[in-house]
Specification:
about 375 residues; alpha/beta; TIM Barrel; 8-stranded parallel sheet; 3-stranded antiparallel sheet; 15 helices; about 20% strand; metal-binding; glycosyltransferase; TGT-like_sf
Length: about 375
């Protein structure tokens, strides 16, 4: 294992750290924009980097189908292929085990998928998942796991957790150790405390560069997610990064950081940007709403993104109503900047021992809601 994680400080359970990879450093707590098929939709890599993002997420299942891992390797790896010279983490395909349930069969050996693109059949074993991520030149490889939905019967949760542990061992054996690259295990067990702790103990015994909490953000209430974090995180090694997969809203991120999570990914800021939902200090706004059509203010007056520095809400509203592609581009860019600003604020607050004050201000502003233009 060859990723170096520095725990620089703590404020309560909240942690400030730094993860060193072959393609650069990741300051934690960190949010990873999602580039499932080798692109953050609608944005150039330099725009994503300018938002403050230090690491992107790609997806093993989607990239193995198109353009193919071997092709990406021949073309110099995913960093060169997509023009992103910073760290990349790749999701192993475990989420697709759940989300594409009608197109797959699963057994001890691995998963057999029917491609959602053309119906062709593909095998994804723990060993092949690791091999694909190696071919992609991913800095952080994720073990193949079985992610199940919520709610889940206790027997099904235990079966999937135990299978994921056996697959974790096979992934560890298949992983090629090299400087600046690492492998993360994934804790499963649905919302059951005993299963989660058994999973964490089993993964720790195998030994990984970091530990992810999987099987959340699958339909459970936020309070349930936070409860699972509360009893799972203490079971994980304190000297390794902790990654909460697929989460979430800005509210989710702040609350999970207070529990001790170091890394996040989610499609929300980019997907919402394409559907006219903007994240701001005062909550979520819908840029299609007529209330914005004469508003000369930026999306968020305190934001440093290019969209807020140049264009008005009225213009962005016009772009969405006219179905011009620049509208989703500008709002996606803004949302990424906002997410990165929240993470940077959390890092600074942890460093000075003020994370509770930061969180209190954050929740107070969010609760106030958006101010109409005549009151600003």
């Amino acid at each position: 294992m060859s990723l170096d994680f520095e725990l620089l400080g703590q404020d309560g359970a909240a942690r400030r750290g730094r993860l060193h990879t072959a393609h650069g450093t990741i300051d934690t707590p960190a949010f990873m924009p999602v580039g499932t098929v080798g692109t953050v939709k609608g944005l150039m890599p330099e725009q994503v980097a300018a938002s403050g993002a230090q690491v992107l997420l790609g997806n093993t299942y989607h990239l193995m189908l198109r353009p193919g891992a071997e092709r990406v390797a021949r073309l110099g790896g995913l960093h060169r292929f997509m023009g992103w010279d910073r760290p990349i983490l790749t999701d192993s395909g475990g989420f697709q085990v759940m989300s594409l349930a009608k197109l797959r069969s699963i057994d001890e050996r691995g998963v057999e998928f029917k491609s959602h693109l053309d119906g062709s059949t593909h095998d994804l074993t723990p060993e092949r998942s690791v091999e694909i991520q190696d071919l992609l030149d991913s800095n952080i490889t994720m073990q193949l796991d079985e992610c199940i939905g919520y709610p889940a019967p206790a027997g099904e949760a235990e079966r999937a957790m135990q299978l994921s542990l056996r697959w974790a061992e096979r992934c560890r054996q298949a992983f090629r150790d090299r400087a600046g690259y690492g492998l993360f295990g994934i804790v499963q067990g649905s919302v059951d405390e005993t299963l989660r702790q058994q999973s964490a103990e089993g993964l720790t015994a195998i030994g990984f560069d970091g530990y992810a909490i999987g099987g959340l953000a699958v339909g459970e209430p936020q309070a349930t997610m936070l409860k699972v974090l509360n009893f799972t995180l203490p079971a994980l090694p304190s000297d390794k990064p902790r990654y909460l997969m697929g989460v979430g809203t800005p509210d989710d991120l702040v609350k999970a950081v207070l529990e001790g999570v170091d890394m996040f990914d989610c499609v929300m800021p980019t997907r919402s940007g394409r559907t006219a939902r903007g994240y701001t200090r005062r909550g979520v706004i819908n840029m299609r709403n007529a209330r914005h059509r004469d508003d000369p203010r930026p999306i968020d007056p305190g934001c440093a993104c290019p969209a807020c520095g140049t264009w008005s809400r009225a213009y962005v509203h016009h772009l969405f109503r006219a179905e011009e592609m620049l509208g989703p581009i500008l709002l996606t860019l803004h949302n990424l900047y906002y997410y990165q600003e929240v993470m940077a604020g959390l890092r600074r607050a942890i460093e000075i021992g003020g994370v509770q004050d930061f969180a209190a201000r954050f929740f107070e502003e969010q609760a106030q809601g958006d101010i109409p233009p005549h009151e600003s």
